[in-house]
UniProtKB/TrEMBL annotation:
Protein name (record): Peptidase M1 membrane alanine aminopeptidase
Keyword Hydrolase set for record: yes
InterPro entries: Aminopeptidase_N-like_N, Aminopeptidase_N-like_N_sf, Peptidase_M1_aminopeptidases, Peptidase_M1_dom, Peptidase_M4/M1_CTD_sf
One Gene Ontology molecular-function label: zinc ion binding
Organism: Brevibacterium linens
Alphabetical GO biological process terms: peptide catabolic process
Domain Peptidase M1 membrane alanine aminopeptidase: 282-474
Location of the Aminopeptidase N-like N-terminal domain: 17-186
Any single Gene Ontology cellular-component annotation: membrane
SUPFAM superfamilies (alphabetical): Leukotriene A4 hydrolase N-terminal domain, Metalloproteases ('zincins'), catalytic domain
Keyword list, A-Z: Aminopeptidase, Hydrolase, Protease
Signal as UniProt keyword: no
Length: 484
C-alpha cells in the first residue's frame, strides 16, 4: 500500500516523469474526449501497470508503442504488458472519453466539477483521476503539458505557462506547459468566460478604467500579457503613493507600499472590478512571504475568481482559485487569500511525500495568515497563536498532529495546531534562527517531496541544536502542549 491515508490510490511500483494531456471538452453536454501520454518508469519487475482513473471509459491503450489489453475495476485501470524490468522506461498512451464528475468520498466532492457556466478542478487529495489516468499520490511529482480545446468564448487556465492558443471553427485550443514538477492533486483545468489582467498595487479598479478592462479581454498570451503588465505597473505606481499600512507596533510598513517583483495576475468575469480592487493586497503578502520564507518558487502567481460562490478556496500551481465570497475586506476573507498564496511555498514547491505530513502544508499556510495579520496592522502572530491555543484547549484533545489519520487530515485543528507548533518553535529559537531555518527549508527542498523528519533535520542544522524534543509534544501527543 502506497499510503494508508488514501487506501487503494496510487502505485508504489511506478513513477511518472511527464504527463502529456490533450483534452477535447464540450461544455454544454459535459463531454470529454481525451488522450494521455505518460512517460516514466516501472520500479519493479512486472507484467502490468496500474493507474488511477475514475468514471471515464478507456477506448484504447498502448505501452512502448504496442497495444495492450486493459481492464477497469472501481477507480483502477490495469494495463497488461509484456514483462517489464525494474527501472525500465515506459511510454503509456491512453485514449479515453466520458462525462467527468467529482468523486464523492471521505473528503466530500473532489475532482472535475461543473460550474454554472464552466469548470473547476479541485484535486486534493485524490481527485486528479476524475479527468486523467495518473499515479495519484503527492510523492510522484511530474512535468506536464496540458492542452484543452473548448468553445472560443471561454478561457482555459491551467498549470505552468500558456505557450500557445489556436482558434479554428469557433473553438480554441489552449496549451500550457509546466517544466517545474507538480503533484497530481495540483494539476488543474479552470474554464470560464474569464478576462485576464495583472493586479495593480493598491485599490484602483476605477482608475484602471475601460482601457485596462478592454485590453484584458484580449489577453491570452505573452505579448498581450506584457502589455497588460506595463499598464498595470503604471496604475500601480500612481496608486501606490498614497498607500499607508501600519504594523502592530504602529510602524508604517513597506511591504504593502511596494509592488511585488513577482507578476500577480487575475482571471475573472462578473467580479472583475472587485477582484482587481481587493487582490492588490497580494503585493504586500508576496513581499512579506518572500522576506520570511525565501524566494518565491515560481515565475508568476495568478488567481482565478469564479462567478460561483465557493465553499473554500483551492490551491494549485502556480495559481489559486477563489470565489467572489473570498474577496471581502473582512479578516476571514483576507486570511484565506494569504493562506492560498503561502501554499505556493508549502504544498506546491515543498510537497508532502505522504499525507500524514499534511501539517507541513497547512500549518505553514495558517501561520502565514498570522504573519500577514501582524503585517497588516491587526493582531500580532503571538496574539493569534494565544487566541487559538485558548480555543483549541477547549476542544476535544483527540487528534495527533503528526498522524491525524486520513479522514481527519483536513480537520481545522490540524491547521491551527500546525501553526502553533511553528510558533512554539519560533519562540524557542528566536526570530533570526527560526526564519533562517524556514528559508533554508524552502531552499534545500525546493520542488521536492518532503517529510516531517526532513523538516526536523533541516531546522536542527540551521539552529545547530536538535529541535526534535521541542516539536515532539506538538506532533506526537494528543493533549495540547503549553505555549510559553
Amino acid at each position: 500500500m502506497l499510503d494508508s491515508y488514501t487506501q487503494g490510490v496510487g502505485n508504489a511500483d511506478l513513477h511518472i516523469d511527464h504527463y502529456d494531456l490533450d483534452l477535447d471538452y464540450r461544455i454544454g453536454p459535459n463531454r470529454l474526449s481525451a488522450r494521455a501520454v505518460l512517460k516514466g518508469r516501472v520500479l519493479t519487475d512486472t507484467s502490468s501497470i496500474v493507474l488511477d482513473l475514475t468514471g471515464l471509459r478507456v477506448t484504447k491503450a498502448s505501452v512502448n508503442g504496442k497495444k495492450v489489453r486493459f481492464s477497469a475495476r472501481g477507480k483502477k485501470l490495469r494495463l497488461t504488458t509484456p514483462v517489464l524490468k525494474s527501472n525500465q522506461p515506459v511510454v503509456i498512451d491512453i485514449s479515453y472519453t466520458g462525462n467527468p464528475e467529482p468523486a464523492i468520498g471521505t473528503w466530500g466532492d473532489i475532482g472535475w466539477e461543473e460550474l454554472e457556466d464552466g469548470v473547476l478542478v479541485a484535486g486534493q487529495p485524490v481527485g486528479a483521476s476524475t479527468w486523467f489516468p495518473c499515479n495519484d499520490h503527492p510523492s510522484n511529482k511530474s512535468q506536464y503539458r496540458i492542452s484543452v480545446l473548448v468553445e472560443s468564448e471561454y478561457t482555459v487556465v491551467s498549470n505552468g505557462s500558456l505557450t500557445k492558443t489556436t482558434r479554428k471553427a469557433g473553438r480554441t485550443r489552449w496549451t500550457y506547459e509546466s517544466s517545474t514538477p507538480l503533484a497530481t492533486y495540483l494539476a488543474t483545468v479552470q474554464i470560464g468566460r474569464y478576462k485576464y489582467g495583472q493586479i495593480p498595487l493598491s485599490s484602483g479598479a476605477t482608475r484602471f478604467g475601460a482601457a485596462m478592462l478592454g485590453a484584458a479581454k484580449d489577453a491570452v498570451a505573452g505579448s498581450a500579457r506584457d502589455a497588460l503588465s506595463s499598464a498595470a505597473r503604471g496604475v500601480a505606481s500612481a496608486a501606490g503613493k498614497d498607500v499607508s499600512v501600519h504594523d502592530s507596533s504602529g510602524r508604517r510598513t513597506t511591504h504593502s507600499r511596494t509592488e511585488s517583483s513577482v507578476p500577480l495576475g487575475v482571471y475573472a468575469d462578473d467580479h472583475w472590478n472587485v477582484a482587481v480592487e481587493r487582490l492588490g493586497i497580494q503585493h504586500g503578502m508576496m513581499n512579506l512571504f518572500i522576506e520570511r520564507f525565501g524566494p518565491y518558487p515560481f515565475d508568476v502567481y495568478d488567481v482565478v475568481v469564479t462567478d460561483d460562490v465557493l465553499e473554500i478556496p483551492l490551491e494549485s500551481q502556480p495559481l489559486s482559485v477563489l470565489g467572489p465570497n473570498h474577496l471581502g475586506p473582512e479578516w476571514e476573507a483576507e486570511r484565506l487569500v494569504a493562506h492560498e498564496m503561502a501554499h505556493q511555498w508549502f504544498g506546491n514547491s515543498l510537497t508532502p511525500s505522504r499525507w500524514r505530513d499534511i501539517w507541513l502544508n497547512e500549518g505553514f499556510a495558517c501561520y502565514a495568515e498570522w504573519l500577514w495579520s501582524e503585517e497588516s496592522g491587526r493582531a500580532s502572530a503571538d496574539e493569534r497563536a494565544r487566541q487559538w491555543w485558548d480555543d483549541l484547549s477547549a476542544q476535544p484533545q483527540d487528534i495527533m498532529l503528526g498522524d491525524p489519520g486520513g479522514p481527519d487530515m483536513f480537520d481545522d485543528r490540524v491547521y491551527k495546531r500546525g501553526a502553533l507548533c511553528l510558533h512554539a518553535l519560533r519562540l524557542e529559537l528566536g526570530d533570526e534562527d527560526f526564519f533562517a531555518a524556514v528559508a533554508e527549508w524552502t531552499k534545500r527542498y525546493r520542488h521536492s517531496s518532503v517529510s516531517t523528519e526532513e523538516f526536523i533535520r533541516c531546522v536542527s542544522d540551521v539552529a545547530e541544536r536538535d529541535i526534535a524534543e521541542v516539536v515532539r509534544p506538538w506532533l506526537e501527543e494528543l493533549e495540547l502542549p503549553p505555549l510559553k
